[in-house]
């Protein structure tokens, strides 16, 4: 499968890292094609929270300041885009249809082409503007998946808690829970 994974300046870099880890560790052959776009603020948050990203050979990086990426056009076939974490500012730009960066342009393309767009916001509390923007992107066809970890599985570590959100992202991407459990050693 072909994915665009993006990150903006919200806290939650560990969600991005765990998603990239899974997409790299998947037993799919050939491996998933992963295109990564980081905003400048995402880079700052990543540095503050986890130091640096671990990237595998199947990850192709693109500058958020360039529109010269295949997925910036509706004619390129990609399976899904995930913005994790997605800041409320990015959510607002997507809701308004503002395409001033590669991330917002690609989100706009995925909406107009009716492709899967998953927005993983972590910010709380919300104001009414945030709530209206969520409604707008949902009505436009996006999947809004807030980073709300669950405790049903009785997570034993910080990573297991984070993975409860990552598993939901993977489920939305159509990657089987069997692969998820295999990755977890289940």
Describe this structure in words.
42% of the residues lie in helices and 15% in strands. With 186 residues, the protein is of the alpha/beta class. The protein has a 6-stranded parallel beta sheet with strand order 3-2-1-4-5-6, with helices on both faces.
Protein topology:
Layout: E1 2-7, H1 13-25, E2 33-38, H2 40-50, E3 59-63, E4 80-83, H3 88-96, H4 102-112, E5 116-119, H5 128-140, E6 143-144, H6 158-172, H7 177-183
Parallel strand pairs: 1-2, 1-4, 2-3, 4-5, 5-6
Helix pairs in contact: 1-6, 3-5
Number of helices: 7
N/C terminus separation: 24 Å
Q: Strand arrangement, largest sheet? A: 3-2-1-4-5-6
Radius of gyration: 15 Å
- What is the domain total for the residues? 1
- Provide the CATH topology: Rossmann fold
Overall form: globular
Q: Could you give a short account of the major beta sheet?
A: 6 strands, parallel
What is the highest CATH level, the class? Alpha Beta
Helix-strand string: EHEHEEHHEHEHH
β-strand percent reads: 5-15%
Low-confidence stretches are none
**How would you classify the helix and strand content by structural class?**
alpha/beta
Q: How many strands appear in the DSSP assignment?
A: 6
CATH-scheme architecture: 3-Layer(aba) Sandwich
CATH superfamily: Flavin prenyltransferase-like
- Mean of residue pLDDT values: 92
